[in-house]
Each structure stands twice: as structure tokens, then as C-alpha cells.
Input
Amino acid sequence: MKKQTKTLLIIATVIVLCIAVPVVIFLTKANKDDKGGEETQQITTQPDHIHTISDWVIIKEPTCVEEGTRERSCECGLTETEKIHTIDHTEEIDKAIAATCTETGLTEGKHCSVCNTVLVKQETVSAKGHTEQVDKAVSPTCTKDGKTQGKHCSVCNTVLVKQESVKATGHTEVKDNAVAATCSQKGKTEGSHCKTCGTVIKAQKDIDKLAHTEVVDKGYDATCTKNGLSDGKHCSVCGTVIAKQEVISSRGHSYGSWKTISTATCSTSGSSQRTCTACGDVQTSTDPATGSHNYVNGKCNGCGKYLPGSDHLTYTLKSDGTYACKGFDTYYISRPSQIPTTIVIPAYYEGIRVTSIGYGAFNSPAGRKVKEFIISDGITDIGGQAFYDCSMITSISIPNSVTSIGTAAFYGTDLQAVYIKTTGWKQSGTGSTYDFSDPYAAASIFRKMSFAAYR
Output
């Protein structure tokens, strides 16, 4: 939208055309365009001519302080001119300058880098003034000067109060007494040093140690159990060891062979002794109980313990209050394949003495499977046919407690030896006496005694 200027310029122009020469009157008015520049508009009174206007041509470039000019024209000679507004300033920052202790500073500002026009003015910032810091006084020493207290600015280091020098105090001399030499330490001559700083003013010199006064330390021999000591030496004045006594290790005992004092049994321990040939020291050793019983006829000859009876045997209580072993119960009778190879006929059953083996006790198929019968000491009677036809046994030990053996007690066995220590047994009914001390002879007798009993 163009705004009409306050004045209207009317210019009359006469244009002569090529063929006819009519007079054309143009009216020109100056207006401002949207950008604030001025333009010239021509109004023709001649309807027959149409203007051909060219592009704008810059006549003068605008700056930040002066306007520029541009124009355009028609081939008929009509010219239009307008102004170009000034352009914006080119801003450049004027950096702030920090104030110091003694000098003022400036705030940040701006100016045009083309025309130098000030856009933002820089303001003055007052100086800060000094920041005081105390410089501590330094006391003088014996050899070094000191200083008085002073001050300076902690920011710019400007000296505000100058430190003055204080002279050194000099040494305070103290005497170092002489030390007499001994056999254990060196001596020293007299000297001196400063009491304040310790600096040596007059150095002490060393005096060599004296010789030791030697004394012999007598040693002694080692024994079997105690260590000995070699000869040595020490100083009788200061106690310094000149020749160290060395430990001589004890020799240890030299024992002879062990001699049995008491023999260990299955339940009691024994003991043995040996003697050192050098000092006579006696060493005793305890031999632990063997834990192994030596059973003879079901009784241990070491501790007297009886073997327990085999399982599945039956017993009958007799009128005298003792038991008689009656042989196997029904378990082994019905299971002959499970019978053990050794059967123990005990001396006690349920805490009561077993004194006899009943008639035909083991005369059964089960008895024919047994290879060994152990008759416990304390049994007095072996009944007739007690081991009849027990063909697997080849030897048997009969204890001294047995006083009678029934008829055919061992008939049908394969006995090779019978161990009986007693002699003078008699065959019942005949009065004949036999010697059973020979085990092989006894075996022959028992195999044949089909109808004989012995007492």
C-alpha cells in the first residue's frame, strides 16, 4: 500500500511522435513505498501510449548513515527515481574490562564497526582497592636473620607494610663433658655445642676401648638326658662373651633288649623292661591285652571265658538243677543244609551249668553235616549214641571234667584222634582199665565201642 506524499508535482512534457505530433501531458507525483523509500509515479493524459518500464537500477548504495538512490525508465524517456533508506548498523561488542585494586574498569558496550556510532555506552567500574594479607614475622635463629611482620595485597601482591630484617642471635655455647673409655665402649674428649640449635662448636674425638679382662667359663659333659656345655670365656669387668659356650647335645639312652616282666593275655595287659647301659635308667613298656582268646574245650585258658553255645540247640533241666543238651531243635532238623560246620556245646545256658549231653543228642541227618563238636569244660557226662553216625568229625577234644561216656557214643564216626588227658578209665561191666592218653589209640577204642560205656 503506497502512501501519497503531501505535495503533487505536475510536470507538463511535450512529446513529438514519429508520425503525428500530439501533445501529451504527464503528471508525476512523489510517493513513499512500503520500505520508506520514495518513488515517482507518472500519470499520463495520453491514452494512446503504454509505458514499458525497466528494472530498478541502483544509483547510490545506502549506508548506515546515508540514504541511497535508484531509478527506472521507459523508452519514451520517462524516468522514475526514488530514495533507498539507510541500512542497519553492524554491531561490534566492546569487551568489559575488569576493575583492579588500583584501576577502574568498564562494563560491556557496543558500536557500529562501519560508522563507529556508539550503540551501547560502556560504563566506568570503580577500582576495588587492596585486599590486605599479613606476612608473619620470622624469629631470628643462631645463624639466620629474622623478619618483622608486614602486609601485602593478596590480589596484586603490592607491598603495603614492608618487612624489616632482624639480626641472628648467635650461638649459646654448652660444654660436652669427656667420657672415659672402658672395655665395652669407646671414650670421648671434651667438646661443646650450641644449646639453642645443637650446632657442634667443638667436636668431641673418640678414644679407643680398653682390652677385656678374660675369665674362663668351665663346661661340662652331656649325659643321656641332659645337654652339656663346652668351655668358654667372658670379660670379668663388663660381662662381654669373648668365646661363647656351645651346647653339647645329650647322648640319649643306650638301652639293651626288652625283657618280659608279665605276659599279656586276652584280657589283661603285660609289661616289659629294658635298661640303659650308660646310666642304668629303666624303661618300662605296657604290652596291651591281645584281645584274642585261646579256647580249649570251649574255655579260654587266659581269662576263663566260655564260648557261647551254638544257636538252635535244646536243653532239659535235670533234677540236680543243671542242664542237659538234648541236640538240635526243629530249625536245623528241617534245614540240614544250613547247619554250621562247628557246633559249640556250652558250659552254661541261661546262666545255669550244662553238665551233660543227652542220649542220641546229635544222632540225626543234621549231625552228619557237622565237622567239629566243641565240648565245653564242665560237662561231666556224654550220653550213649550222643554222636552216633556223625561221620564228618575226624577228631574231638574231651575235657578233664568228663567222667563217663555212654555206650556207642562215637560209633560210626571217622575219628582219627581223641584228646583226653586223663588215664585209668574203666569199661563198664568188665572192670577193664584203659589208657586214653594216646589220642590215636583212644580214637580206635571209641570207633569200636558199639556197646561199651566208660567211667
